[in-house]
Amino acid sequence: MKKYLLVCVFVAGLFGHERVGAQISESQRNYNACLHGYHVCDQSKLTEDQKSEVQRAGLQRNYSACLHGYYGCDPSKLTDTERREVQQASLQRNYNACLHGYHGCDESKLTESQQTETRQAEYHRNYSACLHGYYACDLSKLTDAEKGEVQQASNQRNLAACLRGYASCDRSRLSAAQKESLPESAHSASDEPTNPPHYYTNRQGERVQSPTYYPSAPAGATAQCRDGTYSFSRNHRGTCSHHGGVSKWLD
Questions:
Q1: Contact predicate 110/95, CB 8 Å
Q2: What is the DSSP letter of 135?
Q3: Is 165 within a domain?
Q4: How many structural domains is the chain composed of?
Q5: How far is CA 205 from the centre of its chain?
Q6: What backbone phi and psi angles, to 5 degrees, belong to 201?
Q7: How far is CA 28 from the centre of its chain?
Q8: pLDDT tens digit string along 100-156?
C-alpha cells in the first residue's frame, strides 16, 4: 500500500512539473512575441519589468524604421535628437537618389553644392549613354565636340558590326574604303552565334541565354539590342539593360 502511495505521489509530481514547464514556456513565448512586436503578443501576461523592456524595444524599432525611411515610422515617438538624426538620414537618401538619377529625387531639398554635383553627375551619365549608344542619350545636352566624339564612336561600332557580319550593320554609313575592307564572311548569313553564348538563371529559376551576337535573328530570340546582340529574355522588363536598350522586339 505504501509503495502504491509513493508511486502516485511521484507521478503527480511529474505531471505537476510538466504543467509548470508548459506555463513557463508559454509565458516566454508571449514575452518574445511582445519583445519583437508580433501581433500575437498579450501584454496583460507580462511582468512590469517585461513591459518596460518591450516598450524600449518598440521605441528602438520605430527609431530604426524612421531612420531608414520604412513604412510604419511614427515620428511622434522620437526624441528631439532622434528626429534630427532621422531628418539628416532622409536628406542623405534624397541626395543619393538625385546624384544617381533615381526616382524619388526632390531637388528642392538639396543644398546649392549638392545641386551642382547632381547636375554634373546627370551630365556625365547622359554623355556616357550617348557615347555607348544607350537608349537614354539626349544629344541636345552635348557640346559640339562631344557630339563629334559620339558620332565617331557610333561609326566605329557600326564598322565593327559590319566586320563581324552582325545584323545591326548599316552599310550605308560605311566609306568606300571600309566597304572594300569587309571580308566575304561578313556578307554571309548564319544561324550560328559569332561567340560562344553564356547563360544566366532568371527569377523564375529558368536557364536563359544571355544577349549574344548573331548574323541574323536566331530562333527563340525575343528582342534585338541596340549593340546588335539578340536577347532571349522571358520578360520585357530589363531586357537589353546592359546592351544599350531594345532596338526592336521580336516576340
A1: yes
A2: T
A3: no
A4: 2
A5: 17
A6: -105, 125
A7: 39
A8: 989 989 999 999 999 999 999 999 999 998 988 887 889 999 999 999 999 999 898
